[in-house]
Design brief:
The chain is an alpha/beta fold. The protein has helices spanning 21-29, 49-54, 70-80, 99-110, 132-135, 150-154, 169-175, 186-195, 224-243, 252-272, 277-299; strands at residues 8-14, 36-42, 61-64, 85-88, 94-95, 116-124, 129-131, 144-147, 165-168, 200-211, 308-309.
């Protein structure tokens, strides 16, 4: 049972971000919810990150480790966490001062069956701002509440997750945290895995801002081959979980369809990178066909729509 003011563990993975990590920590100090522990995992930085972290003394907890990627860094933080709720922040992003307070309040009102709370986010691009919920799209009909059909919706689109979520630590422990074999799209894997654990709560207002101005905190080159291959691996893993649980059997056709779509995407990416010009053209055609198939699917009456309830 969640206490009245549960401790929230905020985990920040960082890599060579000495120039901005202080701003992120100071941003967290501005949260209106005070029962927070800040945990920074330095994933093998070679700049002045450690000196910057040392300057905060006992106001934060931090550890350094050999570079192992974002999933491993966040899992290290989860292992250090003592809070009932865990939230993730990257070392070059920012939260609205009320984010944690509003998420904790909504989770308390919704009850222990709710796995996590996700808020909307703004992605700051070099030339514009993008609303994460609108971009997905996830069209919540009310300002906040309980999201009832999370697996069906997340299987067919994805929105900014890590910076936007507050999740029960016991659930993270139960499912094993992030997949450390993934250095890219580990957030998609965790979101889909969490979607199978129960309903979520949501806040339609953007309470997080993600910067996309260049090098990411723990970024790796997101080539079409890598992203499409990871997508297939993730979909295969989720389908195995669904097949192993009778209660999740109704989700199997949808997860199978999404795996087939991922396989087609991987094939298109492979062909586009082939040395033969004819193969490259075939890959481009397959990619465009898939784009239009998805556009048609989003307009179909069977495309999953949001199912929500008021808290």
């Amino acid at each position: 049972m969640m206490t009245t003011q549960p401790l929230v563990s905020v985990i920040i993975p960082t890599y060579n971000r000495a120039d901005v990590i202080g701003e992120t920590i100071e941003n967290l100090f501005q949260q209106t919810y005070r029962n927070i522990e800040i945990i920074v995992v330095d994933d093998g930085s070679t700049d002045g990150t450690q000196a910057e972290l040392e300057s905060y003394g006992k106001r934060i907890r931090w550890v350094t480790q050999p570079n192992a990627g974002p999933a491993a860094a966040r899992n290290r933080g989860i292992g250090m966490a003592t809070g009932e709720i865990v939230a993730f922040q990257d070392s070059d992003d920012a939260w609205h001062s009320s984010k944690i307070e509003r998420q904790v309040s909504l989770m308390q009102r919704a009850g222990p069956s709710v796995v996590c709370c996700v808020c909307n986010s703004i992605v700051q691009l070099p030339e514009c701002q993008v609303n994460a919920f609108d971009h997905a799209p996830v069209n919540f009909p009310i300002e906040e509440g309980i999201w009832l059909n999370v697996p069906e919706v997340l299987a067919t689109r994805f929105f900014l997750f890590n910076q936007a979520v507050a999740v029960r630590r016991e659930v993270l422990a139960r499912i094993g945290g992030f997949d450390e074999s993934l250095r890219l799209m580990e957030d998609l894997q965790l979101a889909l895995r969490l979607s199978l654990e129960g309903p979520w709560t949501f806040i339609r207002e953007p309470l997080a801002t993600r910067q996309e101005m260049g090098k990411r905190t723990l970024g790796h080159e997101a080539t079409p081959q890598i992203t499409s291959a990871n997508n297939v691996r993730i979909r295969e893993g989720i389908l195995r979980v669904v097949e192993s649980n009778r209660e999740l059997a109704p989700l199997k056709p949808l997860m199978e369809r999404e795996l087939r779509r991922a396989l087609r995407g991987r094939r298109a990416a492979e062909l586009q990178c082939a040395p033969a010009v004819t193969d490259s053209i075939r890959g481009w055609i397959l990619q465009r066909v898939e784009h239009y198939r998805m556009a048609a699917y989003r307009r179909a009456p069977w495309f999953p729509q949001m199912k929500v309830s008021v808290v």
